[in-house]
Amino acid sequence: MLLEQYCVGPLQNFTYLVADGEGGEGVVIDPSYGVDPVLAAIDSHSIKVRLILNTHSHRDHVAGNQDVRQRTGAKVVAHRSAPLGQDLSVDDGQRFEAGRLRFEVAHTPGHTADSVLYLFEGQVATGDTLFVGECGRTDLPGGSPEQMFDSLLRRVVALDDALVVLPGHDYGVTPTSTMGREKKENYTLQPRTKAQFLQFLRE
């Protein structure tokens, strides 16, 4: 598998190029502003990009959709509630493929109502649900502290420890992590009741 992480745009967004190998089929995850390096890599690796995967609909995670689409003809994938006019609307537990890559969707509202994780080949693209050492904001339009509690402390903590965490921004001490490490070190994932979690977010 080919997996490349690019820090692009003014908000330290991570955009990912994933393929089943050199010259193979693949996807781009969360194309942000300034995707020229990603487009160059698509060409240099001769990747046939079939899908554009958006973890949520905030502009900094979808700004490069059209650039990638124009270059590759890829179809846009997003949660069914996303207001993106996506080609493929997905929901919790749904599975799909790109070449030999297999993906599974986990709906994790909280940062936005349409936030999802994409699990594939031992990796999990977490968007703005989970960062290295932190979680996404819930005070923006569409955010919900109550839903973030369910997403983090019921869904995310149940994921396999071996999964490599691919966050949506370069906000942590390292660009990637593992679920096992995040469960131990990320203070937002420590056991709390819902009341404690909501108080924690207000502090």
Mean pLDDT: 97
The percent of residues in helical segments reads 10-25%
Number of E strands: 14
| Integer tally of domains | 1
Please report the first level of CATH classification, the CATH class. Answer: Alpha Beta
What CATH calls the topology is Metallo-beta-lactamase, Chain A
- Assembly form of the protein: single chain
CATH architecture: 4-Layer Sandwich
How does this structure look, described?
With 203 residues, the chain is α/β, with parallel strands linked by helices. The chain has one domain: Ribonuclease Z/Hydroxyacylglutathione hydrolase-like (Metallo-beta-lactamase, Chain A, 4-Layer Sandwich), CATH 3.60.15.10. It has 6 helices and 14 strands. It has a 6-stranded mixed beta sheet with strand order 1-2-3-4-5-6, with helices on one face. Strands 7-8-9-10-13-14 form a 6-stranded mixed beta sheet. The protein has a two-stranded antiparallel sheet with strand order 11-12. A hairpin with a 5-residue loop joins strand 2 and strand 3. Helix 4 packs across helix 6 (194-202). It is globular and about 50 Å long. 43% of the residues are buried. The model has no long low-confidence stretch (mean pLDDT 97).
Defining key terms:
24% helix; Metallo-beta-lactamase, Chain A; six-stranded mixed beta sheet; alpha/beta; globular; 203 residues
Briefly say what this structure is.
The protein has 203 residues and is α/β, with parallel strands linked by helices. 24% of the residues lie in helices and 32% in strands. Strand 2 (13-19) and strand 3 form a beta hairpin.
